[in-house]
Amino acid sequence: MLNQGERPKNLYEGFREKLTAMAGECSRVRRAEDIAAFLIPFFRENKIRTVGLAESPLTRAGGLRERLQGAGIKVTTDNIRQAAPGVEAGITQLKWGIAELGTLVQIGTNVDQRLLSMLPPLHVALAQTSELVPTVAEALRLIHSLPEIPGFVGFITGPSRTADIERVLTIGVHGPGRFLALLVDEDVREGE
């Protein structure tokens, strides 16, 4: 993880530039409680009324589920296996961002989190700005420094894309057609 002094604006700007070049969307908020203030108008503008939510430190710290429900958005946190294919957006918290690629790293030991990142047409990926790293090599070093290598590690760079049908690029065939990375400057840890 980066130290406070190692969080230059250029890591975020580099991440955002690479992600948007791959048709992803990227925004940034200061605090966990600002997540809902950003997402509610975003969901209204995009006519999103149902979301699946994988609870996480950022979503709990910002009271995201309650605030979305208070805004009239139906939030599903249980029975994700049945709900994920039918919701309009999935919200998950991912672990690290890789600035050189505009990629987020998913430690997906939680099946609900993986389903919400793959099945709904929009994936909203939350991450902490402090967990941006400059290179793939640094992200791999962090993965290998975990007490145990996770059973699933995913690298997500923008919406699903394929060119396997007559080599014509198609977005959203094997996963979400839209991808929004929302980076949060506040550091929130499990149990806070």
From TrEMBL:
This is 5-formyltetrahydrofolate cyclo-ligase-like domain protein. Pfam families: LUD_dom (PF02589). The lineage of its organism: Bacteria, Bacillati, Bacillota, Clostridia, Eubacteriales. It comes from the Bacteria. Residues 13-184 form the LUD domain. InterPro entries: FTHF_cligase-like_sf, LUD_dom, NagB/RpiA_transferase-like.
